[in-house]
Amino acid sequence: MAYSAGDTILDDEYNNFLNGSSGGSYGINHIMGTGSGVYGLGQSTVSTVSPGNTINASQWNSLFTGMDNVANHTNRSLSSTTARSAGDSIAIISALNTDLQNLAADVAGGCTGATAISTGSELQSSTSTTRWVSSHVAEHSITFASANNLRFFFNAGGKMRFSFTRNGNGGSSATSKDSSVDELISAVGNFDLGSVASTRSGSGETVTTNGLSIGASDLTTSYQTLLRLTQSSGTYTSMYIDIQGKINATYGTGVTITLRYELNDPDGGDSTFTSGNTSSVDQYANFIGVTDFSTRLRLPTTGEGLSTVYTISGSSAVSNSSS
Question: Do residues 210 and 263 both lie within one domain?
Fold first, then answer.
């Protein structure tokens, strides 16, 4: 129902501000407690009022504190949570539901406005064993202790971050193919898998497949392409980086997310020059230098409102091959 200043608030209506779990009427406990899907941060919940009981100032303030904690984490400004004392009227009730639904939208979007996020140390690194001519493919996974922990991590703004580097060319000088790889490295930048979308911090090159609207909550048990980025100009316009993701079970029950990284060079001109007869040209001038795929996390912290945060129980390099 719609509220205005001076209305009487019934106990079941107050409780709906706590436990509402349907569209347009999300309560603070569904937003910050266990919730479901893209809702829920794993925080302690606010107690409901028994039928027929008067709602006192401390109970209102418990609701407001919960809202303020989520707002602090998401950097959302609220208009309805001024602390109340016994005898105060709740003149701001008309704004309360609006504030709750804005908080719900923030959490459902993966708390993209949160700044209490830190970058973790490298979890996995997969390096090509030598210079290569065809592809470098690696799979990295992260695992959580429970499906809820996975949801809470991503809902609070946590991300699985991928980046890659070229550690060297393995020869006397960088080749034109190495330069093309460097351009793809710059264009991808940091690739982040978030709750409901993925992002890259770099720009440029040709987006051949755009799956950036896919986030952790959209993953299936089969790989989906999150991004395929292809060289836009130069000699090696068939070279591409492909990033795919999957989860080990339906979102909400799955605990392991795996990303597959592939740097592919379909160009066939990869012959070597004869050693001792190279005319000062690197024998492997047509090869690509050593490349390295890296995974780390963007971690929610308790710095701005959350009392508990969640992270992985482990990670692994599932596969790594280059040829």
Answer: yes
- Tokens for 269, please give them: 């001109």
Weakest-pLDDT range from 85-89, 203-207, 246-250, 304-308: 85-89
d(CA 65, CA 83): 9
- Residue 168 neighbours by CB under 8 Å, 6+ apart: 289, 290
Beta bridge partners of 230: 206, 240
Q: Six-digit token pair at 87? A: 């005898």
Query: Which amino acid is residue 88, in one-letter code?
Result: D
What's the domain count of the chain? 2
Q: Is residue 93 a part of any domain in this protein? A: yes
| Spatial CB neighbours of 133, under 8 Å, sequence gap ≥ 6 | 265, 270, 286, 287, 288, 323
How far apart are the C-alpha atoms of 41 and 32, rounded to whole Å?
Answer: 5
Query: Closest by alpha carbon to 247, among 226, 217, 210?
Result: 217
Reply yes or no on whether the pLDDT at 75 is more than 80: yes
pLDDT-wise least confident of 68-72, 159-163, 289-293: 289-293
| Whole-angstrom distance, CA of residue 141 vs CA of residue 315 | 6
In a domain, 176, yes or no: yes
71 torsion bin: left (phi>0), alpha (psi -120 to 50), beta (else): alpha
Which stretch of DSSP H or E encloses residue 246? strand 240-247
Measured between alpha carbons, how far is 185 from 284 in angstroms, rounded to an integer? 21
Domain coverage including residue 238: 117-322
Evaluate whether 197 touches 212 at the Cβ level (below 8 Å): yes
Total-model pTM = 0.91
User: Is the domain of 200 the same as that of 272?
Assistant: yes
Domain end residue (candidates: 68, 83, 108): 108
| Domain end among 75, 108, 141 | 108
CA distances in angstroms from 266 to 110, 229, 235, listed in the order given = 37, 14, 12
Q: According to DSSP H, which parts of the chain are helical?
A: 11-19, 28-32, 57-74, 93-108, 147-155, 176-188
